[in-house]
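Translate sequence into structure tokens.
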Amino acid sequence: MKAIVFAFVTILLFRIFFFEAFTIPSPSMERSLLTGDYIIVSKLSYGSRIPNTPLAFPFAQQVLPYTEHTNSYLDWIKIPYLRLFGSPDIEHNDVVVFNYPMEDEHPVQQRTFYIKRCEGLAGDTLEIKDGQVYINGNYNDDAEKLQFDYKIKTDVDSINNDSLRLLGITEGDHMQNKGEFWFTLNLENVETMKKFPHVTSVEPLIQKKGSYNDYMFPENEHFLWNVDFFGPIYIPRSGDSVKLTVDSLPLYERIIDIYEGNDLRVSNDSIFINEVYSISYTFKMNYYFMMGDNRHNSADSRFWGFVPEDHIVGKTVLVLMSIDKSDGGN
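Result follows.
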């Protein structure tokens, strides 16, 4: 019995502080990572977090096994955010696992795990143009890793499904007009599909600059942004200050109010933080901008904003097993 208890505690501590296995739940990172891939995430890479809810059922996230609504943790004891090795040392284009920041009903480390590519670091100014990311004015993407939705025109009303399967193309369908289809493609797919018999054009489905999607962060009509044209936006860095106006506040109000725990209110176009009239704010934490490689099929920072540093779990260091379902599981 002692050996079993020792082994259990060892595995638990290893999982909390060193490495943990995750499964990719969605296609948001395709084709870099496929749905169902098993990955190993290093928690040492960015510094291991001390659990903020130590009274929790092991190996369960949010709810107890075989229940729907019973929390797997008790919030009687809450430990402030602390890492064993300081602040995360994330680099551009790291593939990062983090806790989804919008689940305010749960403590940080009990929130759903997400995996995305870190496009913007604290202190960066990020802009998306034609679906491509620019950091501080410089192109930041690796175009060969990205996927976008494309419109395919043909002079017939069908496309060979076997050819699509061999290319690993799984997302797509007919469009409204005869002979028109949409598919999610990477650059290699695009060049191959242009050579298909009966295909007359392959064009990216890019939204126009200035068109406004009201579900895009920060959900405010002063920022006419969409999935393909977004920003420029400053990503907050600990110790940096920004000027605050009622127009710019939507970018940072969740940080001030929720993530950094201040009392924020606006009265007659005046901003009050902890009941003090404020025209600027100094950030306490670093923040990051996360995006999926499958640019038109990813819920990411374009929709819900910045990821605070206390939500960072670890860095993807190994694909343990990959099952490409488009190739019959091989």
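Note: The chain has a mean pLDDT of 89.
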